[in-house]
Amino acid sequence: MVSLKQILLKENVGGLDLVLRAFFGSLALSALALGVARNSKWKWVLALIGLTGLVSSITRHCTPYVLLGINTATPKESKGKDYIQGHETTRKDEMFQETMF
Known about the structure:
Elements (H helix, E strand, L loop, with lengths): L3 H6 L5 H20 L5 H20 L3 H6 L6 H4 L3 E3 L2 E3 L1 H10 L1
Antiparallel strand pairs: 1-2
């Protein structure tokens, strides 16, 4: 069973996937800013592609990947990294917190 924390916070994007998301997200937002799309529907599509690509590359997380069991991050990149309340915690931090409380 996958926990809600893992669904929303686990790093699972890395390597070429990360680069492609950032590139196409930037490309879509650039096209939107330059007025390439004339139709209102295409503007929304470009905005969605751009924001999704950039946010998933910055956070290194893709929720559909968690649900499908895909992980393109190398074990070195995603080993023990979860983002909780805006900062990175490692397994050592979690063990320390468990002993304190």
